[in-house]
Amino acid sequence: MPILNIISSKIMKIESDLKDGIISELKSKNQKDLLLNRIKFYGVFDGFSSFIKKDFIATIFMLIVVGVIGYFLGLFQYSLYVNFIILFAIITQLAILLVNLSCVIVLIKSIYDDFIIL
């Protein structure tokens, strides 16, 4: 069952508990705010995660390919030029990983105002 459907059923449960008098209005408002933040997070992250996931998989694949090619080039032909090409490719891919990580941090920070980055 998708997470957004589960959260909407939890909101209906909170409303029924409020109607039955099991919880107070303040507690119901706090619980609804928490669930609405989760809905906002999962809604934004659902569309964003497909982009980041594909980019991350491509980056890892390219790092592996560059590593394997660099290993075999180093076995057969050792030169400074080959080392620079491999180093440049690895640094480029690591930069892409850092950009993806920063996008995720910005996304989380935009949704949760009290999110603290260590």
Main features:
mainly alpha; rod-shaped; 118 residues
Describe the protein in words:
It is a single chain. The chain has 118 residues and is mostly helical. It has one domain (3-111). Helices cover 86% and strands 0% of the residues. The chain has 3 helices and no strands. The chain has helices at residues 3-20, 25-76, 80-111. The longest helix is centred in the middle third of the chain and has 52 residues, at 25-76. The protein is rod-shaped. 1% of the residues are buried.
Overall domain count:
1
* Rg estimate, integer Å: 23 Å
Question: What string gives the helices and strands in order?
Answer: HHH
Low-confidence stretches: none
Mean of pLDDT: 76
Q: How does the major sheet shape up?
A: none
What's the helix count? 3
C-alpha geometry = rod-shaped
- What percentage of residues falls in helices of 4 or more residues? over 70%
Instruction: Tell me the span between the first and last alpha carbons.
Output: 34 Å
Q: Number of DSSP strands?
A: 0
Strand content: under 5%
Which structural class do you get from the secondary structure elements?
mainly alpha
